Amino acid sequence: MVEKQKTLFDNFINENTKQSEINNDFLLTNKITYHLGETNTFLNDIADETVHLIVTSPPYNIGKEYEKKKDIKSYLDTQKEVIQELTRVLHPKGSICWQVGNYIKDKEVYPLDIFYYQIFKELGLQLRNRIIWHFGHGLHCKLRFSGRYETLLWFTKNDDYTFNLDPVRVPSKYPGKRHHKGKKKGQISGNPLGKNPSDIWEFVAKEWDLELWDIPNVKSNHPEKTVHPCQFPIELVERCVLAFTNENDFILDPYAGVGSALLAGIKHNRKVIGVEKEKDYIEVGKQRIKDFFLGNLKYRPLGKQVYKPNGKTQVSKVPSEWLEDQNSLYHTKTKT
Prior knowledge:
Blueprint: H1 2-20, E1 22-23, E2 32-36, H2 39-43, E3 51-56, H3 72-89, E4 90-100, E5 102-105, E6 108-111, H4 112-122, E7 126-134, E8 149-156, E9 213-214, H5 234-244, E10 250-253, H6 260-267, E11 271-276, H7 279-294, H8 320-335
Parallel strand pairs: 1-2, 2-11, 3-4, 3-10, 7-9, 10-11
Antiparallel strand pairs: 4-8, 5-6, 7-8
């Protein structure tokens, strides 16, 4: 009996070790591949039509520590070379989710999703949705409105693609609504699992109800914050994973950074592939993956309500100086 229990325990340890093993070189049998190197070079090792979901946030060409700023044409030409290879490795039923913001030059805004759309169309991909990711914090602009959203472009190769709506449905506002005419008159018109979440999403407590992807960006007080200056949250990728892939499908992030997309896939039993050229980010990402399997990883749970100030904390109260200034301004206006 003791020997049998020991064997079962050893098998459990071996299986979990295999699940959490992080490989540098890609093999079809790998659960996790996290490669240190250049994306285009690495992609040569992946066969055509292997990957079911490609999800990433590419460099924005804004001069961060991991990129060299170029003119917009050179930047897009470089990205087109990568996207051509990504299209080659994408499964016929697969999806590409390309999350981008803006490029700024001489105080002028260049919305990158517009430029990228042309590249994907030239390569024959079809746009399914232009999804809005809204976040509540960021830089405060003085010469234009402060940016509080970025976009995620969802492309497929053709009309026959993986789309699992049920795992990502949101609660209906009127679940008791019924058909009021026709053959189905009197019957419930909705779905017991909820409604389609639309292309503007907000994650709130235990539901995706307000149809806006309102996911906090990873700033200093975010539980997932690492050394990466433009880290995107695990939560952002999870709905893509659930909707566009099935268990044991391959997910690829060609600009993997500290492994957020990989962790989103691992959480939902997908095989993951990441490429990153910065060794420091790879090391941080590997530790995050190890921490996940050990149960020590800090991350924002999927669907957790976005924090809203209650007015009781000092920073959420209107400063007394402002109140004095407002009263003074009021009395000045009433006198005139």
